[in-house]
Amino acid sequence: MTEITGRKNVVFLVLDSLRKDRVSVYNDDVEFTDSLQALADDAVVFDDAVTQAPWTLPSHASMFTGLYPWEHGTTHARSYFDGSHETFITEFADAGYDTAAITSNIWITPHKGMTDDFDYVENFLGTADNTISQRLSKLSTKLYDSLGTLPKRVIGRQLDRAFRLFGVDDSCKSEETVAAVESYLDAQPAEDPFFCYVNLMEPHEPYHPPAEYLDKHGVSDTSSIPQRQKDMFTMDDPDFEALRRIYDASVDYTDNLVGRITDSLAANDLANDTVVVVLSDHGQALGESEGLFGHQFTTADPVIETVLFVDHPDLDGDHREEPFELRRLHDLVPYYAGLEPKPDEVVADTVRGGCEFPENFTGYIPSDAWDEYYRKHRYLIRDGTTVRKSVDEDGNARYQATHRETGESVAVSDELREAVDAIDSGTAVDHGADADDQPGEPDDRPEEAADEEIQDRLEALGYR
């Protein structure tokens, strides 16, 4: 079929930090993503999807609202979603869908404001998931955000030292997440539509896939493998080749987890009535670009280019080669579910994205590297060229352009320089921030969680 017939359930499956080149859908040399390939075989595959931010929270906020980070104000510098912009989740709730969020991702929680529109939320936070903790979290982060830059840096580094004293649960809780999804699908009444957001953290550092996957990918010694963002600054001689193997092992394990979710859909007779949207919110640097690891400090191609395909029971498999901004899922997902008419053309002539000065990650940037990593980034893709703008604290900007097909550096044309500059001048887009807001300078947003359990989980993922 080529037309959508009636309303459909939706499983919105985010595979955190998954790179395109580690999925057979985009790379024929990959031989360990059979479950993802089976979904993609009959799916609408987006060959050129790009995130609007190289980090989970602003990327999700853009997908949920359709806005750029500098419009919705949830950024590296202000890590909280204040709910002032409507998400597409409300469309499902208004249409009578049961809405659920099942994820161990610490940023997609009530404490960060990202789950307020869901009926059911499972974050595996235990005693930390309560009203008092959520209120304390928001209160304390408002206070933190009111401080000047220097006090924030001092506090951030002290917190980093203090958090190491706590026992850290550094698992991705993948088994718990999939088990919760299976239970949710088992309990779903056949006549009640649902929207289920799922976030699997396994491709995100730290990497602890089961032993069978480590053995399969030749990982024996993990002592020299960077496991957290701060290892990029503190590890003397990281083994990037071993890092890539353990990353592949984690992706391999993730593929198995995806297979369990699709098996559960089939076992509950839901597959023919469910749209499965599979994507990564961003990718991951694995040491290729000057030893970069992670995703918080870079807008390199493996970080901003993402996985995206949609397995729809009514639609034939197809490939969309045009550039696509992940924020347009805000318009596309309700259409795929049968709630809205087909939107106007959602492919992009120009792709935009960026991130602010990374306040969340200042605790482990060494002083001699501060000017290199404490920066604001903007990126723009147009006519086969990516131009990147990086700005330091004093407003000094540097520009770089690359040819997307060859990867070679090219001259930054006046037209591209003006286009990337226009992002922060407020002339690059035709929607977004209130008139009183300055583009690129979002108002205060809460940032830090108050509960020790939440802080432990943040530290486990390499934040602070």
Structure explained in plain terms:
With 464 residues, the chain is an alpha/beta fold. The protein has a single domain, classed as Alkaline Phosphatase, subunit A (3-Layer(aba) Sandwich), CATH 3.40.720.10. The chain is built from 15 helices and 18 strands. The strands form 4 sheets. The chain has an 8-stranded mixed beta sheet. A hairpin with a 6-residue loop joins strand 8 and strand 9. It is globular and about 60 Å long.
Average pLDDT, rounded to a whole number, is 86
Which residues form runs of ≥5 with pLDDT under 50?
Answer: 159-170, 429-450
Structural class: alpha/beta
CATH top level class name: Alpha Beta
Number of β-strand runs: 18
Radius of gyration: 21 Å
Task: Assess the beta-strand content as a share of residues.
Answer: 15-25%
Q: How many strands, which pairing sense, and closed or not: the largest β-sheet?
A: 8 strands, mixed
**Form type:** globular
Organism: Halonotius terrestris
Biased composition (Basic and acidic residues): 455-464
Region (Disordered): 423-464
Protein name: Sulfatase N-terminal domain-containing protein
Key features of this structure:
Alkaline Phosphatase, subunit A; 15 helices; 464 residues; alpha/beta; eight-stranded mixed sheet
